[in-house]
Amino acid sequence: MAAKKKQKQMKETILILGADGYIGWSAMLYFGVRNNGRVVGVDNYSKRKQMKEIKSESLIPIESMNTRIKSYEKMFNKNNLDFHEFDITDAKLLGKLLKTLKPTVIFNFAQMPSAPYSMLDLDHAVWTTKNNVIGNLNLLWLMKEHCPNAHLIKMGTMGEYGTPNIDIPEGFFEIDYNGRKDNLPFPKQAGSFYHWAKVFETQHTNFASKIWGLRATDLMQGVVYGVTTEESKMSNEVSNSFYYDGIFGTAINRFVSQAICGSPITPFGKGKQTRGFLNIKDSMQCFELYVMNPPKKGEYRVFNQLVEQHRTVNTLAKMVKRIAKKKGYNATIKNIKNPRLESEDHYYNAITSKLEGLGLKPCNFEEEIERMFDDLEPYKDKFDKKTLTPKVKWK
Asked: Any catalytic annotation for residue 22?
């Protein structure tokens, strides 16, 4: 398999910040296999610490980065992965690495990704803002100083937009006001302190690209679901993490987990909320397309990175229930009081023409959800049902 993927002839020096995470480790494997240059990861292991804090853990056991990388080298006969443990809010350490490595591509996944975690209390809201905003701001300044021609690919979220009653463009839209026109950033209506931190990152990245000529791709990513990638499923020693709890577990991942462990599938409120989704393997393919099609110097561009939309949470719950029955599970659905403050019956249509233009070939939605049952079956006795219930309320 590795020989086939080398045919892509990608040769970049890739830096992945947040390399120990669900998305980050998948990207380390994905680009390690496909890239003939170095792939260097950075992480401070904050996610593992947060899981202990909330008394949960990855359903699938994950090894240390040292074990993961050694296993990767044996499996693929390549030694192009490296790892550094530090926090990117430490500008001195980040600057030292950028100055030495001179990466050509930088992925910034080093952000706390949970809306509920950011809403726990004042301390968690402040920590989320510091971690996400300052980490990204450090990166922008230090790119200017040490690797100004690198391509930054930053993880944003569709949650920055909220749920406006009009189509959601890719970052910018033309406005006609009092007889004058301009192309402006689309208004943000974020729904948590986590999402507002992402908005600040977006604005800083756009500004830095303008004044310093940085190349930046900002991803308004939909909700990611799935368990494994083609690489991570090959060995337990390179397994990816999988979170299903009420704080870090995303909708489909939680619904499938609930179906398997015998808990009711729990849409929030009316269940009419509509969001965009994509499989973790689709996410990897998107990243590769961005690397292969970089922006011009000084260009800040935005992609709405999602595949499936126009499906309500209730529709997804019913789909998971139907697939669960096919797999031999007697799943039930129970709508619960919504702990969040959000519109539950709204218009939702995100434009994705840029991504489609790059040639994305997405996975089959229902087939991938069915595959999740197969991937999680060996761990069905490890679920902690107590962690499935959402405990964080917006007010």
From this structure: no
Task: Clarify whether 194 is annotated catalytic.
Answer: yes
3-state helix, strand, coil in the chain (%, to 5): 45, 20, 40
Residue 382 lies in a domain: no
Which pLDDT score, from 0 to 100, does residue 122 have? 98
Q: How far apart are CA 391 and CA 129, in angstroms?
A: 21
Is this structure's pTM higher than 0.90?
Answer: yes
Domain residues for the domain of 18 are: 2-234+278-308+349-362
Q: Which of 157, 202, 217, 250 is catalytic?
A: 157
How many structural domains compose the chain?
1
In a domain, 320, yes or no: no
Instruction: Assess whether 202 carries a catalytic annotation.
Output: no
Name the token pair of 12: 């970049």
> What digits encode the pLDDT tens for the residues 172-189?
999 999 999 999 999 999
pLDDT in tens, 261-300: 999 999 999 999 999 999 999 999 999 999 999 999 999 9
In sequence order, what are the residues at sequence separation of 6 or more whose Cβ sits closer than 8 angstroms to the Cβ of residue 33?
1, 2, 5, 76, 78, 231
The single residue of 198, 281, 318, 321 carrying the catalytic annotation is 198
CA distance 185 to 188: 9
Would you say 115 and 121 are in contact if contact means Cβ atoms under 8 Å apart?
no
What's the pLDDT score for residue 6?
40
Q: Which of 72, 161, 194, 225 is catalytic?
A: 194
